[in-house]
Amino acid sequence: MDASLNLLLVDDQRENLVALESLLTLPDYKLTSVTSARDAMIALLNKEFALIVLDVEMPEMNGIELARAIKERQKTRDVPIIFLSAHHDAEGDILTGYGAGAVDYVTKPLNVAILRSKVAAFVELYRKNRELKLANLALQSEIAERRLVEAALQEANRIKSERTAELHEMVQELEAFSYSIAHDMRAPLRAMQGFSHILRAEHADRLDEEGLEYLRRIASSATRLDRLIQDVLSYTKILRATTLLQPIDLDRLAHDMIATYPDWLPPRATVFIDGTLPRVSGNEAFLTQCFSNLVGNAVKFQPAGTHPRVRIWAEPREDEVCIWVEDNGIGIAPENHQRIFNLFEQVNAPSEYEGTGVGLAIVRKAVERMNGRYGFESALGHGSRFWFQLKAASA
Q: Which of 115, 298, 368, 375 is the most buried (most CB within 10 A)?
């Protein structure tokens, strides 16, 4: 049986496809190259693909639109997509790409080793998922043939345990890989920031206004991408960290945090704790992330000319405690309520409010790791009230 897997390469420039084919022509892959979104959809109807390498900038239907169309089809929604872009300053495209269903994003000119390793990683993940599906189908057939309920349940539990262990190991490897990639990206970003600062400080007189504006954009883009990487690292740390739950003095933690954030203090903002926050069973690092992101968002997402006012309080609920963070900000439209806790989701334009779309995903994962619940109440133009609920600490 042929063990090679199909890869779909999509780029409107034939020379780019030739370059991709030369990089990815390996015994394990069967390459299909097309130059339009229409031809890509036709290819997807006729073949099963393990991976799609997709150019972002294409005429008629661009890569983002094509990715969304692929993810809308039941047959192709699980096919991983790696985006290619010629733009180095592409934070908005990156976030949009991930929101459209991409698993990774690579800029041109291509680094051969990085592209090949990423393609290999996602193809291997696809291969293992396919083997798992085939194994499950075989299991279902065996259960039907035996028609012995007790034996079938035992077999299913055994295979489920094995597959869960394999999947857990695979997820851990992918998390470690993503953490390593994000961590290693910070070094060149720091270099970009440092050199742009030196250039502005020591050679600004040699640049005209247009050159100075380009320099400002380089520094600003490097800072934004560094902020995104830091948020991704924070999210990954929560995923990988050992969850040690212990009694936490929320009142002390919240007061200490408010005192150390200048943007939360008068005259910039008014953040106050109504009453005394109780002790909860939680993790101090995770709770710090919850307060940092919830209060930070409450202060940031404000109408122009409004003084941020944030109220924090607690409500006892049997053996649990509900912590509220209420603001007088812009609020959230109903159509966006289901999106905001997803990773890389931004409901406001980056030009209006800077952000990475990771903060509330960090809150969600941190609360889940502490065995808690979370939610919010909000209406557009009338502020928001976010909450998370944890076990009360034992006396």
A: 298
The span from the CA of 342 to the CA of 362, in Å, is: 9
Tell me how far the alpha carbon of residue 349 is from its chain's centroid.
Answer: 17
pTM: 0.48
* CA dihedral over 329, 335, 337, 341, signed as positive or negative: negative
Integer Cα distance of 307 and 289 in angstroms: 24
14-34 confidence digits (pLDDT tens):
998 998 888 888 888 889 999
**Cα–chain-centroid distance for residue 192?**
24
Closest among 316, 324, 301 to 375, alpha carbons compared: 324
Q: Strand 51-55 relative to strand 309-317: parallel, antiparallel, unpaired?
A: unpaired
The pLDDT tens digits for 180-189 are 555 566 667 6
CATH superfamily of 246-391: Histidine kinase-like ATPase, C-terminal domain (3.30.565.10)
Per-position b or e across 231-264, b if 16+ CB within 10 A of its CB? bbbbbbebeeeeeebeebebbebbeebbeebeeb
Q: Where are the domains of the chain?
A: 5-124, 148-240, 246-391
Measure the CA–CA gap between 242 and 238, rounded to whole angstroms.
8
- Decide: 236 and 179 in contact? Cβ < 8 Å: yes
Interhelix angle 91-99/63-72, nearest 10 degrees: 10
Q: Are strands 270-273 and 309-317 parallel, antiparallel or unpaired?
A: parallel
- What's 148-240's CATH class? mainly alpha
Average pLDDT, the chain: 82
78 vs 101: CA distance, rounded Å: 9
